[in-house]
Predict the structure of Cytochrome c55X.
Amino acid sequence: MLIRNHFLVLTVLLSGFCGLGAAAQNQPADTSLAATQPAPARQQQLRRMLEHDCGSCHGLRLTGGLGPAIHAEAMQQLPQAAIAATIFHGRPGTPMPAWKSMISEAEADWLAAYMQRPSATKPALVSQDPRP
Ligand code: HEC
């Protein structure tokens, strides 16, 4: 009961903060994603990781570098589960590292879905956020 209420509050908060209200209605996938939403502070950490750690190989704007482009348009060509598995397990034999010591499988799922979301529905780059 408590968990369900918490989940509802989170969903409402996220819809408001991320301006997802309209987008979510067009994208049922976002609704199932909500079942594994990390806490807001953790989402911030994951976004920061995507920008800084992933960006070091995939480019600051994720348009490609040592690794291929992993921006939203590229990620929408791949199944969410495949992206999550690549993040969690890495790509053995390539420089793409496994992130399972840093994040949970649920967080990899969330990150994969987040990466697929159109840029317009996302907050500004983390590096532009004020530092705590
Ligand atoms: C040390 C460099 C490096 C880092 C750091 C890195 N990657 Fe990669 N990544 C790669 C390389 C190289 C590939 C291509 C692997 C291959 O050849 O299959 C790749 C592939 C991928 C793919 C598959 C793309 C596709 O088109 O199939 C995804 C998704 C991905 N990385 C996401 C991430 C995420 C998310 C992070 C941060 C959590 C990250 N990567 C951090 C080097 C890196």
